[in-house]
């Protein structure tokens, strides 16, 4: 395994507490209305429409993820949107989930009071704090479950491994990817979110990146890191920490290319199905939301396009006030359905009970 990896952060939905600050864009949340980093430049609602039903998607989750490089990422927020119509989520041809990155070099002062949502804002999902902690190491219970799976004749790879055997049908007729997914979730069954973004490693790109340390803060070290970025293969994205729910809908790494800089997009985070138990009232509705996981891939370089470099499709994207820099960069969100052999939230197994 890599020497550079930080622990995976798990996110949990918690009720708001008195000292929470939901008016701040720095407050990580599930549901509610988005709080924009660029308060004067909200994401236009037509930029977050579901391609299937045409409705503006409500905020699923917002997370504050400042980074050292480039300077524009010193304040950085990810906004994830999802259509609330499960039929749209189940339509393999629909774009029913969307992800945007917003960033700025100067940290704008967070607001202290929630602004009223605009009149055309979609009805929000219920608001929760998104509280994070390190993923626990594999414990005895998980080890025991792995052993039980192995005794059923299912070989489960180490959860940290880049992938589980892709296609093997098992004697018990259950997708081994799904079993590995379940086993990993068992470490912390209430997880609604996984944050996995990390520096790419030699194992990911086939180069020695051992000097490329996330702690670099001098100008020289930043420049060294950037020049290594330039040397990295442009088409290789990191899926090393992905926890796939099934073998359906795995993105082709070659397709994970930033639409702005053409550099690679790496897995940054995943939304887990447990979130649905918090934001959705009726899981038995025929149009209930349902997914195995949502995988969010973002530009490795945190590129900052301007109106001069933006693709035609984004030419209407707003810019930061007084600047030619885009206020929002669309990233890639991939939906994996539940394994056909697995469970559905409409009929939750014991590990998905609240
Ligand atoms: Zn829709
Ligand atoms: Zn980019």
From TrEMBL:
Residues 209-224 have a biased composition (Acidic residues). GO terms for cellular component: cytoplasm; nucleus. It holds the Pfam family PDCD2_C. Residues 175-307 form the Programmed cell death protein 2 C-terminal domain. InterPro entries: PDCD2_C (IPR007320). Residues 206-235 are annotated as: Disordered. This is Programmed cell death protein 2 C-terminal domain-containing protein.
